[in-house]
Amino acid sequence: ISCISMNNMFIHTPNMSTSTISFNTISCETMNGMFLESQFTGSGLTNWNVENVTNMEEMFSDSSFNTDLSWNTISCIIMYDMFFQTPNMSTCTISFNTISCETMYGMFAESQFTGSGLTNWNVENVTIMNGMFRESAFNTDLSWNTISCISMNNMFRTTPASTCTISFNTI
User: Fold this and answer.
1) SS3 160
2) Which of 42, 86, 121, 124 could bridge to 67 as Cys pair (CB 3.0-4.6 Å)?
């Protein structure tokens, strides 16, 4: 049996802080809101195969997520608010293959994510980066090819990024 959608699967689950989730996710295409507003920390996700997932919108929003992730997200187009309001990410490293991603609106907004792992992201196809790091703990140097991006409104609003070197190719 193949599961194509895991949308909102564990939404609003309060007692998941010590849970380990192990699934065969090779056929999954959508995971939006999967752990939205849960106490899940991310244990067991490092070995997930998410190469066919196209939508990770709000996947960990307002959750207790605090795990390093190195995923092949080659098919993912939507990462809207993926880690929005995640307070425990200050030491996390997020390493994704983002070549197909188009929307990163609010991806790390209002989180404690500092930006570890983002330097090698390929964001050349992302068109929307509005509020991507808005009111977060982002504090990492970046040099990205943002040639397709049409909107970066409030991308670094109220972040410590003023001490960073940010270099974008927008031509």
Assistant:
1) helix
2) 42
pLDDT digit string, tens, across residues 34-53: 999 998 888 888 889 999 99
Q: Reply yes or no on whether the pLDDT at 132 is more than 50.
A: yes
pLDDT of residue 161: 74
Whole-number Cα distances in Å, 92 to 7, 88, 97, 114: 24, 8, 17, 8
Name the phi and psi angles at 160, rounded to 5.
-75, 10
Distance CA 10, CA 21 (A): 11
User: In sequence order, which ranges of the chain are alpha helices (DSSP H)?
Assistant: none
CA–CA separation, 112 and 107 (whole Å): 12
Question: Quick one: tokens of 102?
Answer: 């188009």
